[in-house]
Amino acid sequence: MAPSTSADPRLDVSAALRDGWTAFRRAPWVLSGFLLVVLVLNLALQTLQNALSTVVTDQTPIVLLASLLCVFASWILNFWSALGLVRGAWITLEGRKPTVLELVRWDGPAIGRVVLANLLLGLVLTLIALPLLWLLVGALDQLLDFDFSMGGPMLRSVTPTPAVVIRLILTSLALVGVFTYAQVNQHFLVQLASLRGSGAWQTLREGQRVVDRQWWPTLGLVALETVLFLAGLLALVLGLFVAVPVIFCVSTAAYRQLFAAEGPALPG
Predict the structure, then answer these.
(1) How far apart are alpha carbons 88 and 39 in whole angstroms?
(2) Which residues contact 177 (CB under 8 A, 6 or more apart)?
(3) How many alpha carbons lie under 13 Å from residue 60 in its C-beta half-sphere?
(4) Which CA distances in Å does 72 have to 66, 123, 125, 154?
(5) How far apart are CA 118 and CA 139, in angstroms?
(6) How far apart are CA 128 and CA 135, in angstroms?
(7) For the CA atoms of the chain, what is the radius of gyration?
(8) Which residues partner with 144 through β-bridges?
(9) Is 166 left (phi over 0), alpha (psi -120 to 50) or beta?
(10) What is the pLDDT of residue 259?
């Protein structure tokens, strides 16, 4: 499906699914192989981190620094792989098979934009969620009576008064609502950050502006991609090597419907 040029583009989930699957079928071994390489690199970093904590008993500053570097490297690796899969998905959606070099190409500015946008999103969600968590903890404290005199928390009684239960339910629903809303309207954050040269705040605002007009179809897309991920997970985990690239292809096809009329022809 060609990118929409409408002033108010609409999301066609079935077309995104069809186009994404067709795109994956153009280069299944390249996309799945790239994901396998990322998994091997992540396992190598995890093995190195475990070896550092096992071999060296005293947590010296050098060991702690090395462990932090492993965590940071794994974090950056995940962003790099996400950009590679978006790039590969875009190329296959254009009708061409991507090369390995195109997938593994390092793009520091794009990774930086994705990292900053994710950090800003995390900060915004934290600022919104903290008051709700405070209310939730307060409601739980009123609902549950713990005894700490025995050296550990032991539940003594539960007092489910109507006011406390309603407060607990409403606060929980508010937390779920906040994270669900953010998950949906920032669903295309990686595509937006890698395709545009905008700052982190502008990236979040653009995602919210466009997706809010198509929030319910995008929610359906998120639900569909979640089902695909769970199906891959249940298929002896090996199914993830198909499910994850397909999800990136489907998501990028949906992005092209909603955003690509204003963006460049290929991710950076």
Answers:
(1) 17
(2) none
(3) 7
(4) 10, 18, 21, 38
(5) 31
(6) 12
(7) 22
(8) 158
(9) alpha
(10) 86
- Lookup: tokens for 212: 């809010």
Query: Do β-strands 144-147 and 154-158 pair in parallel, antiparallel, or remain unpaired?
Result: antiparallel
Token representation of residue 50? 């475990």
HSE of 121, CA atoms in CB hemisphere, 13 A:
28
Give me the helices (H) in 144-214, please: 162-185, 189-195, 200-212
Place of tokens 């010296």: 60
Residue ranges per structural domain of the chain: 13-110+183-262
Q: What are 148-199's pLDDT values in tens digits? A: 555 555 555 566 677 777 878 888 899 999 999 999 999 999 999 988 777 8
Question: What secondary structure, in 3-state letters, does 45-71 show?
Answer: HHHHHHHHHHHCCCCCHHHHHHHHHHH
Per residue in 9-62, pLDDT tens? 889 999 999 999 999 999 999 999 999 999 999 888 888 877 776 665 556 777
Quick one: which of 189, 181, 176 has its CA closest to 132?
176
